[in-house]
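Before we proceed, please read the two lines closing this message. Let me know whether the structure tokens fit the sequence:

…
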Amino acid sequence: MTAPRVDIAIVNWNSGPLLAACLRSIAASDMSRIDQIIVVDNNSTDASAELNVPELPLQVVYAGANLGFGRACNVAAGRGRAPYILFLNPDAEVFDKTISGVLEEMDRPENADVAVGGIRLIDREGNTQRHCARFPGWRSLVGEATGLARLAPGLFPPVIMREFDHLSSQDVDHVIGAFYCVRRRVFEQVGGFDEDYFVYFEDLDLSRRIADLGLRRRFLADVSAFHAGGGTSERIKARRLCLAISGRLTYARKHLSRGSAAAVWSAALLVEPLTRTALALARGSVAELLATWQGFAMLYTHLPSLARISRREASGA
């Protein structure tokens, strides 16, 4: 029987040389199970999507606008038909057996109920990144906004599982969207990424909806890839802050009770600007201070559209 194959979906926005390096790594890897590589370009201005890689089954979709991460992923997924979809960040690079390795694990009979596979991501020095996450309740999200997740993690558990060394395989709530391999039938069953998120938290939202089906999300420590982290968002720190908090507020509105969501929104809008300002002053960083207040100015302007986002039936407190 032919082993199931995978489509690779990559969203590009001004990734510079990162996207080319990502594609070169795929071309140098075991490509025996790859059907298509679909790059959706979110209106880049740096020519990073002007690609010519004849050895790859590559199609580039020029969106003509910045669709955001989740919406662009949905566009890419809609262009393929393989039983698996691998959502891969352009700042990631795979090794020879990375893609075939994760598919072989998910193909095992005992993993028939594993809908999502993630892997160990490392930096250039070989250090393992801690990226798996827990589904956050109000304590986790308030802790992220106030700094209490670091000061009192027992009471305010961080969203990222910092206590997990990522050196052993295990089921987790969520694996990072930088390398997110999902069964197509499950992805389509839950309706793909929720396009109410522009970027940040849309992958966590997807994992939560998959978990609601009773399906597993598996972290595989024996399969690895390189991940730079930060990517193009490092160059737009104020906007990144605005989008990250917007994603957090959207997640709270969709998945928490009204009272819990109100606590998260209050902490983010009223307390977090002060804690971030104090941190910037303590570090003596004028640039961080400016990025903080520029980011919150963007966020406050964006509040009316955030408030109109529809709620799901709350699944946690």
